Amino acid sequence: MDQARQWIADANAVAILTGAGISAESGVPTFRGDGGLWREYRAEDLATPAAFARDPKLVWEWYDWRRGIIAQAVPNAAHRALVQLEIRKPQFTLITQNVDGLHDLAGNGKILKLHGDIWRMRCTECGANFPNRRVPLPKVPPHCACGAMARPGVVWFGEPLPEGIMQEAEHAAGGAEVFLVIGTSAVVYPAASLIPYAKQAGAKVIEINPELTAATSIVDCALQGPAGEILPQLL
Ligand code: BJW
Ligand code: ZN
User: Fold this and answer.
1) Which domain holds residue 102?
2) Which of 30, 44, 118 to mutate to test the pocket of ligand 1 (most atoms within 8 A of CB)?
3) What is the pTM of this model?
């Protein structure tokens, strides 16, 4: 812990990769592991274009239910600590796999949302991309102004990430002196590839997670515990 604290204190350029675990203490369920996913379905079976094509109403009910949970959630001590870190560091990039918007709500400015935003929708026909914070949705599935069905503004398995975002994330990871990996199982690609990418570019990689993950064996320092407890101590 002391060594990691020193690396962070000495760094001008910091990049961070967060996953669902950083929002766990805000009451947002994670995807995998204990207490992870919901109802009788697996995320992998609902978060795909095929699932949406098969049964858009079912997929939208799942997202509507999750939006209801997220709407009640507020940023926790870990989200808040990252706001303080951004204030302190001249070069700071927060790369998140999360769609919950809690980093925005906490007040971070430079956020790369690799997997989109649960508070946005996209039209399946005209391509419009628009915000929608209505909870619960008055009608499921929701529609675009053009009349066609809308879909959640998130990235499903088998879909490309938003245009250019991995280049930006790699730029930040490649230039970072310290790369923090917080609350992710590090099994979903290409997000997980940022961890070895940062390491190979020379960053000190610090992981914060109560469990061992796919990344633990390659990080320079693994701090085992909940992000809401570890991060405030670290910064
Ligand atoms: C705590 C804590 C506390 C608990 N404090 N920590 C082989 C190699 C490379 C790629 C592939 C491959 N095989 C298949 C692929 C492709 C696929 C993939 O990676 N699959 C793997 C699962 C094998 N990837 C994709 O399909 C991606 N697209 C792509 O590759 O496109 C290529 C392409 C190019 C051009 C044209 C077409 C295609 C897209 C991936 C999209 C992922 N989407 C989801 C859903 C988002 C929307 C939604 O929310 O519904 O993103 S899936 C889900 O997993 C979600 C998450 O962002 C993502 C990562 O999960 P995360 O955040 O790590 O959460 P968990 O639950 O796994 O882990 C939580 C962690 O927190 C745990 O470790 C806990 O211990 C910890 N924790 N409490 C700190 N208090
Ligand atoms: Zn439309």
Assistant:
1) 2-27+75-115+161-234
2) 30
3) 0.97
